[in-house]
From TrEMBL:
Location within or outside the cell: Membrane
UniProt key word Methyltransferase: no
Protein's recorded name: Amino acid permease
Domain of life of the source: Bacteria
Keywords on record: Membrane, Transmembrane, Transmembrane helix, Transport
Positions of transmembrane segments: 34-56, 62-81, 186-209, 221-241, 253-271, 291-316, 336-359, 389-407, 413-432, 452-469, 484-501, 508-526, 532-552
Length: 562
């Protein structure tokens, strides 16, 4: 049974299946289109929404966290680029895992990618709703509050009102309280839901359903608009920057900066969504690697610049808002610019929603072609040349939770799934190098021999913790074993993995860059809360039940072996 669980597909087999399987997808995307799709995915809800909370927690130093996370993503992007040039088919990390680690890991990573694409789109839809409601209010149109937010926000605000009273509540809580008090009721229960988030998801799903060409045109237009407004914010905001707002640079220390890891990393996920369009590219082995690196570098520069401008225009304590870009211009009295930003932000966030809604069905399509999901998921529409059934299912999967759940819950959960996928892709490159599969790669991660460097880095890291981490070590000594297991187990895993990587690098001359990608992503994972990991593990267990109930029995590779 173990052999069947870890059976692998060869690169030649995957390419042959894609070529002769008749996917029916239209090959129309060039490198410019791919870069546009990448920017559309990356520059979305992160820069227009979650960047505010990250700045509030970490202060101006969050700009350096963006540099660090971008640095981590570069190593991952290089690994994705090598895979994309080797296995230029839809499926992203799912397909890559099938080649390197076998069917069980492929299923696990495919299931985890649902968190990256479908669940992250719930965040994007909710963020879109917030900007859309703000935009309408600017035009004097007010939607009833109970129709514009998740019920959790209103219930929390009502509880806070009972505890501290109206005078001590922040304005954002007062708005949520208004939703609770004005909502219609059934059997005494308030009816509260985020209707704009559900509607925009349905509309974008329809656009993705009718064709990649239409999606490409819409994405290109929206990317031009969103990059234009971001440049306008940067160039216009420079004149309102007060250097004293950058002091202190890290008011809450390293802990405050790192508390924004989930929000900042969420701002960068999406560059890998480019790889899901491999079968719709004119020249995937050349264009996919280029597009990933280009869009990542462009977005990193934009993020760092806009974070410095935002924290320079207003004090970081003022940025705990849902629409930080519009808020800062309103704060400095430039209401006209704030209105323009609100309108264009709606368009910009729509493009991110479009790309993620484009990516998820193509992963399900690939899993279905391998027999791990029902045949309906791989059905291609005869007219629109898109995975029709998978697209419709994705619409329901995103729209319904977006109506009812809070955004911050999804942000952290999305990051867990994405870190997991990124680590497996980096490990996959190490396996490809060791097994010789990399010889078929048209793009390869630049090779730097990590034979000694990884181990030396491990020893240096231990010394630095011993030398400068006295307070942290003392804190660990005050913690019980249960508390360490719940909140610090991933830190222990990080150091154990680094030790194992040091030994393996010495033995097998591992390439340094993928190893760095593994370690940085694992370190960032360790900064996420234990509750996110518990939910993620439950999610994986549900996925395993589905695999053994259906995929294990219907696996195309398993049938071929028989």
């Amino acid at each position: 049974m173990a052999n069947r669980l870890f059976r692998k597909k060869s690169v030649d087999q995957i390419l042959s299946d894609a070529e002769h399987g008749g996917s029916g997808l239209a090959k129309i995307l060039g490198v410019r289109d791919l870069v546009s799709l990448g920017i559309a995915a990356i520059v979305g809800a992160g820069i227009f929404s979650t960047i505010g909370l990250a700045s509030y927690n970490g202060g101006p130093a969050v700009s350096m966290l963006f540099v660090f996370v971008a640095f981590a993503c570069v190593f991952t992007a290089l690994s994705y680029a090598q895979f994309a040039s080797t296995v230029p088919v839809s499926g992203s990390a799912y397909t890559y895992a099938y080649v390197t680690f076998g069917e069980l890991f492929a299923w696990i990573i495919g299931w985890a990618l649902v968190l990256e694409y479908a669940v992250s789109n719930m965040v994007v839809a909710i963020s879109w709703s917030q900007y859309f409601v703000s935009m309408l209010e600017g035009f004097g149109i007010n939607i009833p509050r109970w129709m514009t937010m998740a019920p959790g926000y209103a219930l929390d605000a009502h509880q806070k009102f009972l505890e501290v009273g109206l005078d001590k509540m922040e304005n954002i809580d007062k708005i949520a309280l208004q939703a609770y008090e004005t909502a219609p009721r059934i059997a005494g229960m308030p009816i509260i839901l985020d209707i704009p988030a559900g509607i925009i998801t349905v509309l974008v799903t329809w656009l993705v359903y009718i064709g990649i060409k239409e999606s490409r045109k819409a994405s290109n237009i929206m990317v031009i608009i969103k990059v234009g407004i971001i440049l306008a914010v940067i160039l216009g905001g420079i004149f309102f920057v007060k250097p004293e707002n950058w002091m202190p640079f890290a008011p809450n220390g390293l802990g405050g900066v790192m508390s924004g890891v989930a929000a900042v990393f969420f701002a960068f996920i999406g560059f890998d969504s480019i790889s899901t369009t491999a079968e719709e590219c004119k020249n995937p082995q050349r264009d996919l690697p280029r597009a990933m690196i280009y869009c990542l570098l462009i977005c990193a520069v934009l993020y760092v610049a806009i974070t410095l401008v935002l924290t320079g225009m207003v004090n970081y304590k003022e940025l705990n808002v849902k629409d930080p870009l519009a808020y800062v211009f309103s704060y400095v009295g430039f209401d006209h610019m704030a209105g323009i930003i609100s309108v264009t932000s709606v368009i910009a966030i729509t493009s991110a929603l479009l790309v993620f809604q484009l990516a998820q069905p193509r992963i399900w399509m690939t899993m279905s072609r391998d027999g791990l999901l029902g045949k309906s998921f791989s059905k291609i529409h005869p007219k629109y040349k898109t995975p029709s059934f998978a697209t419709i299912v994705t619409g329901f999967v995103v729209a319904i939770p977006a109506l009812f759940f809070k955004m911050d819950f999804f942000v952290d959960l999305t990051s867990v799934g994405t870190f997991f996928a990124f680590i497996l892709v980096c490990c996959g490159v190490l396996y490809m190098d060791h097994s010789g599969i990399s010889k078929k790669s048209k793009f390869r991660v630049p090779y730097v021999n990590g034979k000694y460097i990884v181990g030396i880095g491990f020893l240096v890291g231990l010394f630095l913790v011993y030398r400068y981490g006295g307070e942290t070590l003392d804190h660990w000594l005050t913690m019980g074993s249960t508390e360490i297991l719940l909140h610090k187990s991933l830190v222990i895993v990080f150091w154990l993995v680094w030790a194992v990587m040091s030994v393996l690098s010495y033995k097998y001359n591992f390439s340094l860059l993928p190893v760095i990608g593994v370690l940085i992503n694992l370190y960032l994972m360790s900064e996420l809360g234990a509750s996110n990991w518990i939910i993620f593990i439950i999610w994986l267990l549900i996925g395993l039940v589905i695999y053994f109930a259906y995929g294990y029995k219907h696996s195309k590779l398993g049938k071929e072996e028989k």
